[in-house]
Amino acid sequence: MAYSHENSKGQTYYLHTKEVTLRGGRLQRIYYFAKEVKGNDSLDEMPEGYQVVENKRTGLPMLKKA
Q1: Which residues make Cβ contacts (< 8 Å) with residue 48, sequence separation at least 6?
Q2: What distance lies between CA 27 and its chain's CA centroid?
Q3: What percent of the chain shows pLDDT beyond 70?
Q4: For position 1, what pLDDT does the model report?
Q5: What are the residue ranges spanned by the domains of the chain?
Q6: Whether 22 contacts 13, CB under 8 Å
Q7: Rounded to an integer, what distance in angstroms lies between the CA atom of residue 25 and that of residue 19?
Q8: Are 7 and 13 within 8 A, CB to CB?
Q9: Are 30 and 50 contacting, i.e. CB atoms less than 8 angstroms apart?
Q10: pLDDT given at position 26
Q11: In the chain, what is the straight-line distance between the N-terminal and C-terminal CA atoms, in Å?
Q12: Per-residue model confidence as pLDDT tens digits over 15-42
């Protein structure tokens, strides 16, 4: 089951990750929340050293290093 977070507006978001290639060729892992679980990109638990914060205006959850 994917890690989920309910925001202050009552909407549920699920945590996903993806490996992206930056312009210099370096690989970077990004984390993002989506309203639906998408394939194999979903995570079962929150990564170590991160916390969930919420955009005050839109309610969109984001990960921030603790």
Answers
A1: none
A2: 18
A3: 100
A4: 83
A5: 4-65
A6: no
A7: 12
A8: yes
A9: no
A10: 97
A11: 24
A12: 999 999 999 999 999 999 999 998 888 9
- Rounded CA-CA distance 24/13 in Å is 31
CA gap 7, 32 in Å, rounded? 14
Q: What local confidence, expressed as pLDDT, does residue 39 receive?
A: 83
Q: In this structure, what token pair is assigned to residue 28?
A: 């970077």
Q: Is the pLDDT of residue 60 over 90?
A: yes
How far is 60 from 35, CA to CA, in rounded Å? Answer: 10
Q: Which two tokens stand for residue 65?
A: 């290093």
d(CA 11, CA 6): 5
In sequence order, the β-bridge partners of residue 34 are: 14
Strand residue runs (E) in 3-58 = 4-6, 12-21, 27-34, 50-54
